[in-house]
Amino acid sequence: MPWKGDEIKNQLIICSREERWKSKISRNLKTNFSARINCPTRIYVHILKDVGLWTIFKVVLNYSHPCCPDRVEILKQYRELSIFVRRTIETNEEAGIKPNKTYQSFVAAASSHWDLSFIEKNVRNYITREVRNVSEQDDAKEFGKYLLRMKEKNQNFLFELNLEGDHSIKNAFWADARSKAACKYFGDVVSFDTTYNTNRYNLVFSSFVGVNHHGQLTLLGCALVKNEDIQSFKWLFECWLRCLGRNEPKGIIIDQCASMQRAIEMCMLTTIHQWCI
119, 32 in Cβ contact below 8 A? Predict the structure, then answer.
C-alpha cells in the first residue's frame, strides 16, 4: 500500500493508567477507584513510506505500577453487567434507591471495588439507557405536560408545539415571562443560533439571544427543531413574533444557512439579516 501524505503517519499507544486523574471529590468519599497514576509506558509506531507497513521504532516499558493481567476486566472494553446485576439495578431503581447506593451494595457484597467487573458509571449508564428508556411519543407527552404546568404557574409563559402524525415532536417553541419582557427592551438586534444538538432524538436546540444595556446576553426564546428546512424555520419565526407580540427586529444575526435566510425573508420583511463571523 503506497503511502499518501494525508494519511496517518504516526501512532502512540499508551498505558490505560497514563496521566493523572484530577477530581474535586475527597479521596475518602470516592466510590470509584482512580486508575490513572502518570504511568510513562508507551509504544511509538510509524508507517514506512515506501511499503506502507507499520513499524515499531520506540518502546518504553517503565511501568509505575504492578501489572495485573487478571484485572483486565476493569478496562472499559471488558466491563460488563451480569443478568443478576442488571435485575438488581432495575429492582433498586423501581424502589427509589439511588445509583450510588446500589453500586455500594455490590461493593459491600464483593468486599472490594477490584472484585467487580464494572464501576459506578456503568450502573448509572444502564439506568439511563435501559431502565429509564421510554418511547419518543411518551417523552413528547411529558414535555407537553411540563409546558402546560409552566403555563399554569405563570400565564406569561408562552409556548407552541408542532407534532407529527405519531405524536412525536416536530417543532417546539417556548419563552418565559422574563424572555417576553427582555424582548420588549432588547429585541432590536437578535442573534439566532442553531449550533446545539440533543443526543437522543436529534432535535436541534435553537435560541434567540439579545444584548441588554450592561452588554450581557439575555435569552429571548428557545426552540426545538427536527428539520432545518425553510418550513420549520418559518414556523419558528412566526411563533416567536406572534407569542412575544412585538414588531420585527431591526436586525438578526444568523449562521450561513440558506433555509434560515429564506425563512427570514418570508417572515421578517423589514429585518436586516447578517451572517455571524
Answer: yes
CA distance 136 to 139: 5
How far apart (Å, rounded) are the C-alpha atoms in residues 56 and 43? 7
Cβ pair 207, 165 in contact under 8 A = no
Under a CB-based contact definition with an 8 Å cutoff, are residues 225 and 169 in contact?
no
pTM (predicted TM-score) = 0.52
Terminal CA-CA length for the chain: 42
Query: In a 3-state reduction of DSSP, which class is residue 193?
Result: strand
Express each pLDDT in 157-181 by its tens digit.
Answer: 999 988 887 677 889 999 998 988 8
**Exposure class string for 83-111: b at 16+ Cβ within 10 A, else e:** eebeebbeebbeeeeebeebbeebbeeee
Of 75, 55, 70, which Cα lies nearest the Cα of 15?
75
Q: Which helix (H) or strand (E) holds 158?
A: strand 158-163
Write the pLDDT tens digit of every residue in 50-96: 777 888 878 887 776 666 655 555 566 667 788 888 889 888 888 88
